[in-house]
Amino acid sequence: MTDEELSGSQEQELYEHYRYVVDPGQSMLRIDKYLAARIENVSRTRVQAAAQAGNILVNETPVKPNYRVKPLDVIQILLPNPPREIELIPQDLPLTVVYEDDDLIVVDKAAGMVVHPAYGNYSGTLMNALMFHFRDIPLFQTGELRPGLVHRIDKNTSGLLVVAKNEYAHNRLARQFFNRTTGRRYLALVWGTPEPDEGTITGHVGRNIRDRKIMQVFPDGSQGKHAVTHYKIIERFSYVSLIECRLETGRTHQIRVHMAWKGHPLFNDEEYGGHRILKGTTFSKYQQFIHNCFSLLPRQALHAQTLAFDHPVTGKRLSFESPLPPDMEAVLDKWRNYTSGR
Question: Is the N or C terminus of the chain more exposed, i.e. has fewer CB atoms within 10 Å?
Fold first, then answer.
């Protein structure tokens, strides 16, 4: 049997996209059974949930779980939640809940909290906290590694994240992130002054060739995945600038690596060179000022400020905004005072 499969899973949005061309000799079989037999670690129930949410297309048309596949059918399926890797342990950790209903929750993640367990961070994550918070909800009792998760933000980035509370909402939200119909804006403090004041950065983002823990831009598109970041300067502080970034795609470290590639690393971003004094004077007073700022903000200056999406059940557009966390606010105030006194 010759199935053709495309691995379309994204770095930051947590879903997987598969494509199959049905073998010419295939007998007519229910599509939920057909797909469950082909996708590793995926149950028939999860396939059915994807179909009910409209996430299974046959020849570009949505089908129900009881559709019977035919020879040469082209099947596409979008599945949230990659397969389980390790066991998730519920933990009673503090959560800042911005919005919650029967279908989803929007949380304001603090900097320093990892979103889901991975190598080196098996506890204390947002997912551990949600497993405790939702311990009576079926989706969070399945043993999945990332129940309800459709996107994530870096450990040392603060801000908004939406998590689904049931399979239907999970599938519908995953499709919005895949189709790029969500709205996400970030605030970042970067070294220097980007030119022009408002612009778009386009460049494939993939794993760094020498250091797999970080990313790099491949301008020729030879590696990595298509990535687009729109930016706009909000405030200037002589040697650094506060910018707003709108994500069109959501690759790992996208804003951080795109800005560094353009010569404007995020302030105090150790992984992309922003933890050094890149602009300004050689005066010891200025250098002390910068080190004081680094002490106030011991992370990259990046905050997921706004998040917008269509409610997976009602279809109503929901928009949320998170205030700047105290550490970023304190550093911005220091820069305002510094530049106003010059």
Answer: C
